[in-house]
Every structure is written in C-alpha cells, then in structure tokens.
Amino acid sequence: MKHIFTYGSFLLKQWKGKLILFISCCSLFVFLTGMNGENQDPMFQKQIIQQVDSLNIWAEKNVENEIFKSRNLSNDALVLARSINYEKGETEALINLGWINYRQDNYDKALEYSLEAYIKAGKLKSPKINIRAAFNIGAIYSDGSKDHLSALQYITYAYEESLKINDLDNSKRALNNMAYLQYMLGEYDKAISILDSIPGIKDESTNPLFLGFSHRTYGDIYSAKGETEKALEHYLQSYKILKEFQSKSNQVSCNVRLGRLYLKLGNYSLANRYLQEGIEISLEHEYKDHIVALFNEMAILHANQQHWEQAYRYQRLYAAWSDSLSNQINSKNMGRMEAKFAFDQKMKEVNLEIKNKELLAAEQLKKQIYERNIFVYASGFMLCLIIITLISLKRIKKAKQVAEMANTAKSDFISVMSHEIRTPLNGVIGFSELLSSTALNNEQKQYVGLINQSAISLIDIINDILDFSKIEAGKMKMELSPTNLDLLGSSSIDLIAFQAYQKNVSLNFNITKDTPAMVLADELRLRQVLINLLGNAIKFTDKGAIELKIEKILDLERNFSMIRFSVKDTGIGISEHNKEKIFEAFSQEDNSTTRKYGGTGLGLTISNRILALMGSKLSLVSEIGSGSTFFCDIKLEQLDILPESLHNDVKMLTPVNLTEQEATLLLSDLEVNILIAEDNPVNMLLTKKLVKQFIPKVKLYEASDGEEAVNIFLKKKLDLILMDIQMPNMNGYEATQKIRKIHTEGSSLPIIALTASALSGEKEKCIQAGLNDYTTKPLDKKMLLNILLKHLLIPTSP
Fold first, then answer.
1. What is the DSSP string of 480-533?
2. Where would a tag sit more exposed on the chain, N or C end, judged by fewer CB atoms within 10 A?
C-alpha cells in the first residue's frame, strides 16, 4: 500500500498525473470496498433468516385482508433474502408477491414473480413451495389471459404433487380450482363431479375458505344452467363464509355474482347493496378487475331504474377503469414471457459462470498486484474505460435504431386503427342518417339524432388523436395553395352557425378592407385552426356574441403581409394561472370544465402545433366572466394574380354550387352503370342505399375485392367505379392500375377512392395510383353527392 501511494505522489507532479492518480484511487477504493462484503457473521445471517421467514409467514396468512401491508413486508423479505443469498426465503417472498399482484390484477408482474419462484422451487426440491408457485401461475393463466386449458395443466400438476406428499389441504384446493376451470370450459357435469369428490367438502368442519370456494363454484354452475334458486342459495352461503373468513377479494367476487343475480331477478335494492359493498372493498384494496365488473353492473342497475345521470356516471367510471386494464397479457404474450424468462435464467447462469471466472482472475491479480507497475495498472484501467465507452456508443446506436423502428410501428398502427375504427363508424353514421329520413315518431327521431351525433363526436375525437399523433411523429406537412381569406372565414363561421342559433348567440365575421383577398397558405390546416377556436368559443359561451376577425397588421418585404386571425367570445373566461395549462395536451382549465363541457383537451394543442409549422403560435387575452380572445399572427404571401395552372386546378376541384334538392333532381333521371368495390357488407349496403337515393334509375354492380372489380369491368360497360382501398386478394390501388392498363375505356373511366384512412398523403397516393377523386369514411352524404355530380354530369379530365 505504501508503495502505491508513494508512486501516486510522484505521478501527481507529472503531466496528466492528477487524472491517473484519481483513476488509480477509484480502482483501489472499489477493490477495498468489495473486500468488506466477502465474509459475514453467521449469527447475523441467522437473525436475517429468522426475520425473512417471519415476514413471509405473516404475509402468506394475511394477504387476503391486509394486502398492502403484505406487499410491503414481502418486498422487505425479498430484499433481505437476496442480501444473504437465502434461496428459500427469496422463493417464498416471490410467491407471495406473485399472488398479491394477481389479486390486484397486475398480471404481468404476477407472472414474472411466479415464474421465477417456480424455477427456484424446482431447484430447492421443496414440493410445498413448488405447489404454491404452480397455483399462482394457474390462477394468472385463468384470469389474466383466460387460457383455462393452460391453467388446468398447472393446477393438475399442483394436485398430483399434493397427493404425493399427502397434503390434504392443497389437494382440496386444487380440486376446487379444477372444478372451477371445468366450469369455465363449459364442462358443467365434470365440474360438479369433481366438487362432489372433494373429501369432507359438505362437512361444516372443513377449511372455511375451501367451503366458500366450493359454494361459489356450485353457484356459478347452477347459474350457467339456469337454475337461479340453487345458484342464489350457494352464492349466499359462499358470501357468508368468505366474509366471516375475511377473504376480501373472494368476498367481492361473491358481491359481483349476487349483485348480477339480484339485478337479473329485478330486486334492485339487494343488487345495489351487494354492488356498493363490493365497490367500497375493491377501491380500498385496488381489485381492478372487480372494480370494472362492479361499475358495469351499477351502470346497468341505474339504467334499468331509469336513473340516467347515475347510469352515465358509472358507465364513465367503467370505461376509465377498463382502459387501465387494456394492457392485460394474452396467452400468446404469456408464452413469450415464459420463453423470455427461460432465456433470462440461462443468461443468469452464464453471467454467474463469468462472475466466478472474474473472481478467480481477481484472486490471481491480487498475487501479482505488488509486482506490477502502478502506471501499467492505470493504463489498463484507461483501456477499460475506452472499451466501456465504445460499448456504450454501440448500445446508444442500437437504442436509436429500436426507437426508429418503434416510431415506424406506431405510424403503421395509427394507419391500421384509422381504417378499422372508421369502417364500422361509417355504417353507424350512414344508416342513422338514412333512418332519420324514414317515417319516425318524435322520440325515435331524437334517439336516431343522438346516435348520429355521438358517432360524429367520436369521429372528431379520433381525428384529433390522429392529428396529434401525426404531429408528434413529425409527419404533418404544410401544403400551400391559393386561399381566399373571405371564403375561408365565412365557411368556418357557417360550420358553427346552427350551434350558435340553438344557444341564441350572435355570430360576426369581420375582414378588414386592406386585408389581401388571396394568399398562399395551407387552407385545410388554417381552417382546422379556426374551427377549433370557433368550436371552443361556442362551447364555452352561453350568451352574447362570437366574432371571427381577419386583419392585416403589417406589410412585409417581397409581397408578404402579417395577417392576424382572432376569435373573440363573451364566454366564461380563463383564470390567469390556467392560461398556460390549456395549451397542454389532454388538458382543460380544470376538472369541472371537463365534466361539464367534455372534449379531449387536444384542440388547442393541435392548433398550436399546426401554427408552429406556419411560424406562429396562439396568444390569449382573457378575464374570468368577461370572455376570451384567441389570436395568431401569420406571415403570408399575397397573390395579386392567380396563375393559370393553379386557377385550372382550383376550378376543377370546386364543388357544384347547387342545393341538395337541385342536385338530386339533376341526377334522378340518369340511367348509369356504377360498380361498388367494397369488402365490408355494412359499408356495401350503405353505399348502395345512398347511391340509389340520389340516382333511382342506376344499375349497381357489386365486387367484394379488387380481382372481382376488374372482372366486372371487363364484362360490363360502366360509367363510374366507387373503389374501396383496403380489400383482400387485390387492393384498390392494384385494381385501379390494372383497369387503367387494359384499354382506352379503362383510362378515361372515373374511379373514386373510398378509404377509411385519414392520414396525410393518402389523397396524393390515390391520385398517383390513377384514381380520379378521393373521399374518406365515414361517408359524407353531401360529399358523395358532389362526387356523383362532378363525375357523371361534368366531363372528367383525361
């Protein structure tokens, strides 16, 4: 030691000596610190073992009625056991933690703990511990992924092991679980046969917990068979026993069953009593699965009693808690986790072998340490640092690649979900509109209107989330085109005119005289910002007025101007400390605002992100009770004369300026042949109904995929094709390209894309593939009418 520090003093005076000495001292400190933990007092180890065993025994006995304390004590036992390599105590702590996480529906953590315990129990050669671990995994498979066959394998193993060691209690428990799993598999007679075979199961002196489980399973079987009275009798007995035994989670499972059964029998008072009691216990102990089931049953109970406000509240709670359980693992994921766990165990064995070799090398190094020069040691340590740095850089590069892959997967997921969600909503919105035009009484019209309004609201929320995701992924681009500011403002105002009329709020649109008539801007995104601001204004304004104002506030160089867009309302206003909060994603001024007015809290965030792409941002002037003014200043290029090419494009895309009645009258006498290519039967029926409504004399042809569409085109003379994009066998893009290549008729035939994808770039992709026009699902009635007018009455450009 003396030689090391003497040489260190010398190096301190030399070039780079400080760095070398620092590294050397750090190495020596780590070496000496490691020596301190090599040997521990046997008496101290014995005390730790006793403490671990005491903690594990208490947690096992009290897990059903003191779940949080049991979890904390089990965590303490796990840490202590690992600190002294006490395998048995560590395994029992893992089993307790697996069961606790299972009770609280944290199935991924429960499986992780249980699988590790199962492997360790096998190495310990302790059948009792192995049986407990098997029970854990079986329960997780049954409730976590609903894979009852896999669960049955583990429970059967626990039963067979219990018989081998003559463990009567665990064999009864296993038979109970096997009966329940047979019931879940629909084998009711097998389930009853197993229950009847349990020794002393009908004897009151048997273990109360097993007796309660048996009555509950009998009740489930008789309920499934429709024998309500027998089911009720067994459920009540199970409830009484489990409550006296203070098995909280199992008691709540009886609360759910009794509440559901009394609800079915029309005894709302008793149903409410059992459900309320179950909710209180579940919230206290965080039994998530039970909470979801109880909130759902309470919503049904209040709906049956026509307590709509309470029913809606519990339905909201049910939806919120259901979302929190949406990450439950399925059987395939559980299989992957088992495979991953086995791999991790192998890696631990490899790492242990490496560690042993490193310890051996360290012992050899100790013998040589005083024979070596300290400078060589420091140089070697520096080399290790360089290697570690290189490894870290490699890991960072790999992490970046993984992040990029995840981002790509996210975009693909958004695209697929956009299609999958919009496809059924297309049916809901379309058929509710068609239904509203039939002979209905006032109450029926109100219900249909609510269905349509709810579906449209859902579409708006989906659009907000998709826009937010596109912005987050950096995939939203500005597409500049000539924009008429006067038309932009008036059309935006028109979209909220009906809501303003309903609330008796006056609407004003003001564009100053010096504001340029035409500018180069992204009209679609600018309109989206204005509609978001106007939508918020009408939502939070119950009286007074709303004003949209467009004004030029500054002339800039090279024909650019600074244009201010502002929306002023006389609504509730925003407090000073909440002015920044409202611009955050998923946030509103406070929770009461969310409850009263609804919404995702994304509108202002999306608007601000869009404006950032335009080089601007939202500003706010507001006072509580006096209203708010949101405004943004955007630098835009003024267009004095619109170029001819742009003029032609705009003219081609402008909708026919007719009322719906006039347009329908023009189409009513047409005798045309139209092919609808759509793989979804609901959307096929909806599209047919809408087209028939506009063109009564139309002859319709149907294709369920792209290949069928091409074959019909070859055999029939068609005037127009409505082409879905995502279809089996051959998609809409491929079918369109094949039709275009066939002959001249195929090149001039109007083909319109019907797609459920709302992602940016979708329209350009359709045009590049050879389609003439594009509309998204849910199918808009007016948009379809404009498309039919445009392509059947106006000649299509080659």
1. -EEEEHHHHHHHHHHTTHHHHHHHT-EEEEEE-TTS-SEEEE-HHHHHHHHHHH
2. C
Dihedral of the alpha carbons of 611, 613, 614, 615, in degrees to the nearest 10 = 90
- CA separation for the pair 758, 507 (Å, rounded): 31
Q: Which amino acid is at 253?
A: S
Task: Judge whether residue 676 has pLDDT over 90.
Answer: yes
In angstroms and rounded to an integer, the radius of gyration of the C-alpha atoms of the chain is 36
DSSP string, 220-270: HHHHHTT-HHHHHHHHHHHHHHHHHTT-HHHHHHHHHHHHHHHHHHT-HHH
Residue with tokens 């003439």: 772
Residues making up the chain, counted from first to last: 798
Given the DSSP bridges, would you call strands 673-677 and 720-724 parallel, antiparallel or unpaired?
parallel
Task: Copy the structure tokens of residue 712.
Answer: 């019909």
Contact between 117 and 60 under an 8 Å Cβ cutoff? The reply is no
The residue behind tokens 């005491």 is: 54
Taking the CA atoms of 426, 432, 433 and 435 in sequence, report the sign of the dihedral they define: positive
Give the closest residue to 633 by CA, choosing from 556, 553, 534, 569. 553
Q: Pick from 777, 779, 752: which is nearest to 766 by CA? A: 752
The two structure tokens encoding residue 185: 């598999």
Rounded distance, CA 101 to CA 289, Å?
12
Contact of 178 with 194, CB cutoff 8 Å? yes
Which DSSP helix (H) or strand (E) runs through 359?
helix 331-368
Sequence-ordered list of residues with C-beta below 8 angstroms from that of 679, at least 6 positions apart, any chain: 704, 705, 724, 726, 727, 728
Q: Smallest Cα–Cα separation from 104: which of 288, 373, 272? A: 288
Question: Which residue has 């000073």 as its token pair?
Answer: 576
Buried b (16+ CB within 10 A) or exposed e, 553-579: eeeeeeebbebbbbbbbbbbebeeeee
346-363 residues labelled b (16+ CB within 10 A) or e (exposed) = eeeeeeeeeeeeeeeeee
Q: How far apart are CA 199 and CA 168, in angstroms?
A: 9
Q: Which run of H or of E encompasses 635?
A: strand 627-638
Read off the tokens for 693.
């409504």
Closest CA to 234 of 192, 173, 171: 192
Q: Is the pTM of this model over 0.70?
A: no
Amino acid at 355: K
Share of the chain above pLDDT 70, in %: 75
Residue with tokens 């063109």: 695
What percent helix, strand, coil does the chain show, rounded to 5?
70, 10, 25
Angstrom distance (rounded) from CA 616 to CA 521: 13
For 425, the 3-state DSSP assignment is helix
User: Could you report the per-residue pLDDT of 430-456, keeping only the tens digit for each?
Assistant: 777 777 777 778 777 777 777 876 776
Position 712 confidence tier, pLDDT thresholds 50, 70, 90: very high
**DSSP secondary structure string for all residues of 168-213:** HHHHHHHHHHHHHHHHHTT-HHHHHHHHHHSTTTT-TTS-HHHHHH
In angstroms, the CA 661 to CA 688 distance is 19
- β-strand pairing of 627-638 with 560-569: antiparallel
Inter-residue contact 48 to 33 (CB < 8 Å): no
- Residue 656 burial (C-beta neighbours within 10 Å; 0-12, 13-18, 19+): middle
Query: Could you give the 3-state DSSP secondary structure of residue 568?
Result: strand
**Cβ proximity of 23 and 32 under 8 Å:** no
DSSP designation for 677? E
